[in-house]
Amino acid sequence: MTAISIHGLKKTYNNGFKALDDVNLEIQPGEIFALLGPNGAGKTTLINAVCGIVKATAGSIKVFGNDHLKDYRVARSHIGLVPQELTTDAFESVWNTVSFSRGLFGKPANSSYIKEILEKLSLWDKKDEQIRMLSGGMKRRVMIAKALSHEPDILFLDEPTAGVDVELRKSMWEQMSALRQSGVTIILTTHYIEEAEEIADRIGVINKGKLIITEEKTALMKKLGKKQLIINLHESLVEIPKQLSKFNLQLAEEGKQLVFNYDPLLTEDNEVANLLDHIKENAIRYKDLATRQSSLEEIFIQLVGKS
């Protein structure tokens, strides 16, 4: 059974703005799914629709087979949400904030479980402090603890590391991976491409309310990623010889590098070898070779640019 199944989801506001346009998506139990897109693309609207905060105009959402409208109590009990905005009672303690959130879902008190969450999120030594006394990064961890308080199977993280420093961001990546290992399905939206590249199993790109692509991370990079062969030369070239014009070459580093751009899926196996043979025939000596694969950021820009 899929963790989340979304079919034909649409959301049009009264002013005619289409926030979601026929979104179809299935998320499997235990995976980390990263949703990428520019500001206003529909990321938060999609999350809020699944969580019941925004009412969709059309389409269906099922959470572990439960319709999110007809069986909303059961569906919602599976979900924990960490919103972008830090919304907590500033004068309440960390312990009481997380415990109260558990009670909202009708769960009986369980101090050992709350302690376990706070320890995992490095919040145990802050349990008696008021929320207002915490740093921004710690407040975000409290939001995660609140979302986990009722033991959900699915955790939504809307820009979870926005505004936190690099060290804390990497720490939170480790915590997300640990949560996934414990069986929690994680869906996150992010502006940080390296975040998706680091921890996601699968990636979806949304733009103008449309889900452009969903793909396993490695398959996406293999399918859409371009490669470069970088040839470091002994002597600089002023221009690329005419005999090499049939290859997709560029001069770089003030003529000290030849850069060959190619698509691994479309380029013939012997084309790189042919290029090197032609270079030798033209008496161009090179010191060494290096290859470079497109980054996820470059692929993302390419996809959004096309949509």
What brief labels describe this structure?
single chain; 307 residues; alpha/beta; Rossmann fold; Alpha-Beta Plaits; 2 domains; 6-stranded mixed beta sheet; 10 helices; elongated; ABC_transporter-like_CS; ATP binding; ABC transporter ATP-binding protein
List the helices and strands and how they pair.
Blueprint: E1 4-12, E2 18-27, E3 32-36, H1 43-50, E4 58-63, E5 66-67, H2 72-77, E6 79-82, H3 94-104, H4 111-120, H5 136-148, E7 154-158, H6 166-181, E8 185-190, H7 193-199, E9 202-207, E10 210-216, H8 217-224, E11 227-233, E12 249-252, E13 257-262, H9 271-281, E14 286-293, H10 296-306
Parallel strand pairs: 3-8, 3-9, 6-7, 7-8
Antiparallel strand pairs: 1-2, 1-4, 4-5, 9-10, 11-13, 11-14, 12-13
Helix pairs in contact: 3-5
Description:
With 307 residues, the protein is α/β, with parallel strands linked by helices. Helix 3 runs parallel beside helix 5 (136-148). It has helices spanning 43-50, 72-77, 94-104, 111-120, 136-148, 166-181, 193-199, 217-224, 271-281, 296-306; strands spanning 4-12, 18-27, 32-36, 58-63, 66-67, 79-82, 154-158, 185-190, 202-207, 210-216, 227-233, 249-252, 257-262, 286-293. It folds into two domains: 4-222, P-loop containing nucleotide triphosphate hydrolases (Rossmann fold), CATH 3.40.50; 226-306, Alpha-Beta Plaits (2-Layer Sandwich). The strands form three sheets. A six-stranded mixed sheet has the order 6-7-8-3-9-10, sandwiched between helices. The longest helix has 16 residues, at 166-181. It is elongated. It comes from Candidatus Trichorickettsia mobilis. InterPro entries: AAA+_ATPase, ABC_transporter-like_ATP-bd, ABC_transporter-like_CS, ABC_transporter_ATP-binding, P-loop_NTPase. Keywords: ATP-binding, Nucleotide-binding, Transport. One of its GO terms (molecular function) is ATP binding. This is ABC transporter ATP-binding protein.
